[in-house]
Amino acid sequence: MALTLEQLNAASSAEALQLLDGLYEHSPWIAEQALAQRPFRSLAHLQHAMAQAVRTAGQDAQLALIRAHPELAGKAMVAQNLTAESTNEQSKAGLTQCTP
C-alpha cells in the first residue's frame, strides 16, 4: 500500500519518522527537521523540506551525511551489510553484478 501525504501528515512524530526512514541513509535528522514543516501540501513540499534540511545543515552534518552513504559496490555490499534501500538502489544500477 502506498503512503499518502494525508497519512504522513496525520501520523505521530515517531510514526512519521519511521515512515520516512531510509530516504537519507543513516541520517534521520533530515526527516526530523523536515517533519517540523507539516502539514505538507504536496510531494514537492515534502521534497523541498528535506532538501532544505540538508542545505541549511552545518558542514559537519553535511559531511556526516555523505560519509553515511555506503561505498558503491564496496565492502558493505560484498558483506551484505547494506540497508534494503541501498541494496535495491545498487541492484538497479547493476552494481550487484560487479566483482569486488
Overview features:
mainly alpha; 7 helices
Structure description:
- This protein has 100 residues and is mainly alpha-helical.
- It is 57% helix and 0% strand.
- The chain is built from seven helices and no strands.
- The radius of gyration is 15 Å and the shape is globular.
Outline the fold blueprint:
Blueprint: H1 5-10, H2 13-19, H3 28-35, H4 43-55, H5 59-68, H6 75-78, H7 84-92
Helix pairs in contact: 3-4
Percent helix, as a range, is 55-70%
Any low-confidence stretches, pLDDT <50, length ≥5? Answer: none
Write the element-wise H/E pattern from the N-terminal end onward.
Answer: HHHHHHH
Q: Return the average pLDDT rounded to an integer.
A: 85
Strand content: under 5%
So what's the overall shape?
A: globular
Helix-strand makeup class: mainly alpha
Q: What Rg is obtained from the alpha carbons, in whole angstroms?
A: 15 Å
Q: How would you concisely characterize the structure shown here?
A:
The protein is mainly α and 100 residues long.
